[in-house]
Amino acid sequence: xxxxxxxxxxxxxxxxxxxxxxxxxxxxxxxxxxxxxxxxxxxxxxxxxxxxxxxxxxxxxxxxxxxxxxxxxxxxxxxxxxxxxxxxxxxxxxxxxxxxxxxxxxxxxxxxxxxxxxxxxxxxxxxxxxxxxxxxxxxxxxxxxxxxxxxxxxxxxxxxxxxxxxxxxxxxxxxxxxxxxxxxxxxxxxxxxxxxxxxxxxxxxxxxxxxxxxxxxxxxxxxxxxxxxxxxxxxxxxxxxxxxxxxxxxxxxxxxxxxxxxxxxxxxxxxxxxxxxxxxx
Length: 281
What we know:
Blueprint: E1 9-13, E2 21-25, E3 28-33, H1 44-54, E4 64-68, H2 74-82, E5 87-92, H3 95-104, E6 112-117, H4 120-124, E7 135-140, H5 155-162, E8 165-177, H6 182-195, E9 197-202, H7 204-207, E10 213-220, H8 229-234, E11 241-244, H9 245-252
Parallel strand pairs: 4-5, 4-7, 5-6, 7-8
Antiparallel strand pairs: 1-2, 2-3, 8-10, 9-10, 9-11
Helix pairs in contact: 1-2, 5-6
């Protein structure tokens, strides 16, 4: 399917996981969906997000969730499966992606998942006022092809998104970066400056800046449930690490905050990254 942006999107059957599909946009794997088992989170970074979502409130308790970026609607499906009755809003720029996904991989019947179309930052400003301060979970997973657009990487953007968080709500941000991790460190510093508390979950080699990969940034105005994380991460994927507190400050190492005036797109992956199976945005 040709999208309004000119990018090409398709759903490909997963030859490794029968019954599952990958959403691929311009050659970049964006999402993995197992419609027969929505709790099957295949991409490593998505599974790490799932671990944090599991730690929100009481297990199985419905939550209010806001997803910026639709992809294959993997996490909305996960939330509905693990926390039935949750209220969820999804913001997506490309109607064609949602049309393709919903036609080929319909959402569960009765799920309270509302989809709004438009640029994430602009659409945030138009959400119902009743949602402000109500979201237990906000997921920021916004990619234009293989890169994160600059206007959703700044203090100003995260401040707007955070206005929808409940007092103990958690924001999860998927960031992809390569050697050195300078972009990811800047994003972590920016999220922490807005919310006050932050942690990063990733493969240790990715954290050390030795290869391109996904960083999951967790931020909250309240203390994060980090005491649960080592046990949850021990369940996979391996290897995995959580960086927080003093270790996080050392890792950020004075990375500058990102404001609108100096924001840039995330760095592109090397051409070899998606020639083998791996995570996507």
